[in-house]
């Protein structure tokens, strides 16, 4: 059993993918070609915003968003310590200081009740993360941000396609960011990402930064990066987008099957915590993750049956050596540390059968 199955999806759209790639080979515009424009228009409509700007990766999208908002050395950006390192990495790379707040016990996303206390005169932005497939509580986060006149950058790398009170991920903040890394619910076959905004001026700035700060040929008014997206990757996203909503529904069915089976197992008597959705949220179930004080033994049982599992972010960001100079220590973010110590993600993809789900859960009873 594969942890993330891309082959079943590819079998359904292989002919379409090959036709789209052949079209790119024929016109030869391999970087930021016409398929990129088509992808940007399609995704802007999907999310419900005016602008989508495709970029080279999800990591680049975060960096470009920070640059476009004028974040610089000495500034502070608030985020969470329970996420992939790129979130805080880009804050630090631009010269700003990542400031962490703990996550919510239920959703494992930013706890908005802790946000206001972390805001200082140096705070210039808030960057919440949609972990494992659902958005943070953007309603509360946006209200606090508005109170302090702070921009919010939603890191929707794992939550793209999910909704918060009916609004799509990447549509509810000043700027939304996502990744098209192959393992994402909507992924390409390499690196890719996108930014979303309704702000015309910000969108123009993002587009300039994406191409080395160039606003016209031989004219570079701002510093930029090489954040251009390959045309073939945009073509693949266009093909996969035709399946995306159906796959989201299937992911929900798989998640429901997992929860039903696990809730009837002996694991519930061993302190297991199943994933839970926040108020008004739907999830794209980028991962199916649960917490167990016996995480390592569960992983070992799965391995005995050749079933993969992953313990994501087992060392949270505030305990990573690269961020030692921030001065955080073990115990500063207890919910993050518990989730890091107990989290285990099971195989998840839209084409996982009920029999396969039972096979996974059955390992825990052996």
Commentary on this structure:
The chain has a 4-stranded mixed sheet with strand order 1-9-8-5. Strands 3-2-4 form a 3-stranded parallel sheet, with helices on one face. A two-stranded antiparallel sheet has the order 6-7. Strand 6 and strand 7 (167-168) form a beta hairpin. By secondary structure, the chain is of the alpha/beta class. The longest helix is centred in the C-terminal third of the chain and has 33 residues, at 231-263. The mean pLDDT is 96. The chain has 2 domains: 7-238, Type I PLP-dependent aspartate aminotransferase-like (Major domain) (Aspartate Aminotransferase, domain 2, 3-Layer(aba) Sandwich); 244-365, Aspartate Aminotransferase, domain 1. The protein is globular and about 65 Å long. It contains 11 helices and 11 strands.
Strand-residue fraction? 5-15%
Strand order of the largest sheet: 1-9-8-5
Shape: globular
CATH superfamily of the largest domain: Type I PLP-dependent aspartate aminotransferase-like (Major domain)
The domain tally reads 2
Q: List the helices and strands in order.
A: HHEHEHEHEHEEEEEHHEHHEH
Assembly state here? single chain
CATH topology of the largest domain: Aspartate Aminotransferase, domain 2
Low-pLDDT stretches: none
Largest sheet: 4 strands, mixed
Helix share, percent? 25-40%
Cα-based radius of gyration, to the nearest Å: 20 Å
pLDDT averaged residue by residue:
96
CATH class of the largest domain: Alpha Beta
Count all strands and give the number: 11
- Number of helix segments? 11
Known CATH architecture of the largest domain = 3-Layer(aba) Sandwich
């Amino acid at each position: 059993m594969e942890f993330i199955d891309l082959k079943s999806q590819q079998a359904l759209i292989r002919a379409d993918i090959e036709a789209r790639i052949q079209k790119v080979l024929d016109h030869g515009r391999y970087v930021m070609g016409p398929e990129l424009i088509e992808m940007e228009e399609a995704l802007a409509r999907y999310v419900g915003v005016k602008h989508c700007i495709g970029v080279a990766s999800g990591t680049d999208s975060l960096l470009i968003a920070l640059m476009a908002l004028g974040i610089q050395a000495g500034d502070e950006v608030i985020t969470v310590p329970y996420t992939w390192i790129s979130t805080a990495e880009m804050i630090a790379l631009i010269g700003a200081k990542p400031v962490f707040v703990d996550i919510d016990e239920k959703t494992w996303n930013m706890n908005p009740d802790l946000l206001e206390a972390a805001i200082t005169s140096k705070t210039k932005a808030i960057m919440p993360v949609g972990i494992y497939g659902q958005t943070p509580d953007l309603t509360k986060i946006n209200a606090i941000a508005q109170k302090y006149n702070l921009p919010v950058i939603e890191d929707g790398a794992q939550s793209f396609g999910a909704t918060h009170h009916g609004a799509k991920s990447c549509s509810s903040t000043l700027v939304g960011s996502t990744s098209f890394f192959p393992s994402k619910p909507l992924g390409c076959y390499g690196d890719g990402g996108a930014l979303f905004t309704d702000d015309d001026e910000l969108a123009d700035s993002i587009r300039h930064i994406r191409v080395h700060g160039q606003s016209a040929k031989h004219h570079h008014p701002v510093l930029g990066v090489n954040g251009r997206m390959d045309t073939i990757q945009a073509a693949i996203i266009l093909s996969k987008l035709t399946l995306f909503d159906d796959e989201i529904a299937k992911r929900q069915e798989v998640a429901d099957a997992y929860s039903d089976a696990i809730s009837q197992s002996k694991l519930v008597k061993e302190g297991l915590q199943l994933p839970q959705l926040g108020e008004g949220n739907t999830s794209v179930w980028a991962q199916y993750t649960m917490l167990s004080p016996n995480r390592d033994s569960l992983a070992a049982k799965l391995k005995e049956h050749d079933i993969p599992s992953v313990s994501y972010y087992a060392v949270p960001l505030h305990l990573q050596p690269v961020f030692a100079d921030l001065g955080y220590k073990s115990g500063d973010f207890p919910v993050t540390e518990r989730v890091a110590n107990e989290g285990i993600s099971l195989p998840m993809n839209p084409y996982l059968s009920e029999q396969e789900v039972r096979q996974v859960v059955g390992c825990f009873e052996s």
